[in-house]
Amino acid sequence: MTTFDYKSALAKVPEEPGVYRYFDEEGTVIYVGKAKNLKNRVSSYFAKSNQHDRKTKRLVSQIRNLEFTIVHTEFDALLLENTLIKKYQPKFNILLRDDKMYPFICITNEPFPKIITIRRVDKKLGTFFGPFANLKVMYSILDMFKQLYKFRTCNLNLSEKNIQERKFKVCLEYHIGNCKGPCENLQSESDYLKEVDQAKNILKGNMGLPRQYFEEKMLDAASKLNFEEAQEFKEKLAYLVNFQSKSTVVNPNIKNVDVFSIVSDEEAIYFNFMKVQNGFITQSQSLEVKKKLEETEEDILTMMVWEMRDKYESDAKEVITNIPLSVELKGVENTIPQIGDKKKLLDMSLKNVLYFRKEKADRQASEESAGDAKMRILLTLKNDLQIKTIPKHIECFDNSNIQGTNPVSAMVCFKNGMPSKKDYRHFTPRTVVGPNDFATMYEVITRRYTRLLEEEAALPDLIIVDGGKGQLSSASDALKALGLYGKVPIIGIAKRLEEIYFPEDSIPLYIDKKSESLKLIQRLRDEAHRFGITKHRDKRSKNFIISQLESIEGIGKNTAEKLLKHFGTVSNIYKATPEELETLLGKARALKIKQQLEEVGGQ
């Protein structure tokens, strides 16, 4: 193993602000840091190393090279550090990323825009607001929009040409009063866009313009003696005012600020972020970050502030925090209020972060307690079945078919007594014709464990077959052919009396009906049945739809499958424009099929 001559390397490091990078023996960046004085900061890792904590000592032991970049200011160092951490994702750095993909509210970029929720940002689709870490807030805003406005929910292409050519008819949403019928030109686009603008203002936290809009509409209707319309706008105004009164937490004169609070313990750091506009909290998120090295709370908070402002596209000129930032951000004032409305905001943020930390600790304690209970059940199952190992990994198989049609087999997987849904699998029999459960079980078991053997993946601790001696015998034969028989325990469960069968044993085992281990086996069996029957119904429905489409002249099975895969539903296929069909099937064929679809649809 090569060693690092840190003394020679330190001789080249200047006393300037900048960013440094540590590399391991393989040339991988393992840490990125910033410093007001590079020489002093880098030297601190190697001088008095016995005073470092365990994690820092481990970092130093792996350093084989270092590089540095000189910058003008500490702020420039913060920017570069943030960029390099995102680029290299070093294992010793705190990575401010959240595994959850939070939803956004999107106002689509099309005639008569829709308001939708979406998790992946594509700026071409429309204008995005969010992300919303608090789903309750997002849905309360969407519910308010339904009360105040009549936005369309359909996917029709409401171009001026399509509307003029009367291609569409109003749907149920129009008849129940949820839409004003722009598809039949019953609402102008300019009138529709005025309401979209109000929604945009609300999402930006600006309630003043929407309130003014409803006040003007109410007074205008009253002046024309349209008292019913005036009452409608009065009710909408009251709804908006009521929503704002519940959402306003401080003086509305606090126009645009970001609030951050941070607390820490030995293992982790917790922080809360609130984005406030006109006294209205438009965003809020709490996160936990595991500690990596001897980072100060000020440094970590500064990184968090930069990251969250970038994530939420904040342009606030003031950042309220409970401790000072380690670097002064350009064009941004850092405030630590002691009294007044801003102090109330900071106290609210601190209350949120402390509650978040307590909730995390309570959940962890609950999971540990639940883990003990699950282990007890698995131990009971091990003893009841008299197998050698604790069945932490169990796989259960079930066959589904109705009168031999659309057969499908399902395999569900439980790990540590809980469903592991990412490991669930469906199988469509390839070699079996007709309703033959025994042959199907043999094929499915063979395919499943051939795959695991080829991939050198972990085998289960227990295999459960839904069925009696016949299915169990077929599954056992498959394991014998693979050389796995006797290496992995396998049982069958018969539905009628919940009998447990073992291979080559005609006498079943009856586990106490109240036993937790039997309940676990039943849960696996029922889950496999549910998973299989759901797939069976989907397959049967798809085959029925395809047969419907095949009855139309010009559409064969392959074309039907292609159309269904592309458009999703039969309804969407009938609504498809000639141009959409043309891109999929070619001009001549699309024209012919469109004519047939219109004839069938008109019948």
From TrEMBL:
Residues 15-94 form the GIY-YIG domain. SMART domains: GIYc. It comes from the Bacteria. The keyword Ligase does not apply. Keywords: Cytoplasm, DNA damage, DNA excision, DNA repair, Excision nuclease, SOS response. GO terms for molecular function: DNA binding; excinuclease ABC activity. GO terms for biological process: nucleotide-excision repair; SOS response. CDD domains: GIY-YIG_UvrC_Cho. Residues 340-479 form the UvrC family homology region profile domain. One of its GO terms (cellular component) is cytoplasm. It is found in: Cytoplasm. It holds the Pfam family HHH_5. SUPFAM superfamilies: C-terminal UvrC-binding domain of UvrB, GIY-YIG endonuclease, RuvA domain 2-like. Interacts with UvrB in an incision complex. NCBIfam families: uvrC. Belongs to the UvrC family. The UvrABC repair system catalyzes the recognition and processing of DNA lesions. UvrC both incises the 5' and 3' sides of the lesion. The N-terminal half is responsible for the 3' incision and the C-terminal half is responsible for the 5' incision. This is UvrABC system protein C. It comes from Arcicella aurantiaca. The gene is uvrC.
